[in-house]
Fold:
Amino acid sequence: MKVFSGIRPSGELHIGNYLGAIKQWVELQEKHECVFCIVDFHAIITAYKPEELQKNILELTIAYLAAGLDPEKCILFVQSEVKEHSELAWLLGTITPLGDLKRMIQFKEKSKKYPEHASAGLLNYPLLMAADILLYKADLVPVGKDQKQHIELTREIAKRFNKTFGDVFILPKALLPEAGQKIMSLQEPKKKMSKTDSPAGYIGIFDEPEKIKEKIMTAVTDSGKVVKYDLERKPGISNLLTIYSLFSGKTIKILEKKFNGKGYYEFKMGMALLLIESLEKFRKKRKELLAREVYLREILSRGKNRAQVIAQSTMREVKNKMGLI
Structure:
């Protein structure tokens, strides 16, 4: 099976990114042909600082490697360095109805929330995402729940192309994590954890121990002292239980039993110690990689070369079917 996924280089990764995406990628690379991308073209769709983009790309490369991705077992590269991504996005745009793009939930929500960023790039975001996936003929695309609609559109675009010009593309399937699809903010537990949240709302995968402890101890819980999962009435403690469960490998039921009658303070202390210990290997690896920029660039260069071979082969098929060559 072939797998494709990517993350935008838009700043520090948090535990929501890790649990919802990269943890799954690390497992997938052991069994499948995996292509993992730093999607910098996607990062420039909304406001960003050009002078920080290259730094963010290297930081994300470090995060990928520190979290367990192995460049010997998967392909790691920067999206903009493989020109076929934007080329295929243009070609797919010629067969995609405008209405399909306008009905995308993320476009509706973001253009309403940030009208100043409602650009053609934001509207065409799903076309570039479809090109990313279809270029590598991915069978599986590990994504969060909020991207599922875009995978459905990618399948429709692939079907339309194959029907119009002849079979080229695989119809990819979204691969959602069994748990941790949506890790919520520590301060607003009904809102998804995000880098744009207040610093107290998320835990970066490279946060120092004292910062992790502070954020966990000040995390919003609920009235009462019972450590019990109840998403409707106790969203705060339910979110913390989900995080605790995913890092510990213990079920929520086991954790409820462990902390029965012990209250939130003891639960939070245990959780803080667990996260500090779990993320220590990430911090250690990051410190090592920060001094090895040449090595990081070599990994990305090798990944680009491997990705280009696949992308160029797919584009020859696409252009041939479309009569462009």
User: Anything to note?
Assistant: The chain has a mean pLDDT of 93. The first strand starts at residue 2 and ends at 7.
